[in-house]
Design brief:
Helix content: 25-40%
Number of domains: 1
Order of helices and strands: EEEEHEHH
Strand content: 35-45%
Mean pLDDT: 90
Distance between the termini: 37 Å
Number of helices: 3
Amino acid sequence: MEKIEIHEGEKGISFFSLDVDGKEVGRMMVTVTPGLLKAGFTSVGLTQRKSGYGRTLVNAVVDYARENSLKIIPECGFVAMMFNKYPETYGDIRAMP
């Protein structure tokens, strides 16, 4: 069973984690400021790659941003690739420079 958790640090949300059957398989570092979410480094374990877990993390962060009226700055190459590959899905949420 997949479970997304939001982890907060001293300065607000610091990362999202994805657990599968009680084991963390992925993580995305984030920084939240008024109106913006910076999607930083995304990591999925080597043995879990090509399983869709990266996309699951991206979708969870996008859902969070939409629910909280935030735009996303894709600082992570993987997130930027997803935004570029699927503009019909993520175009509304991407912060424009």
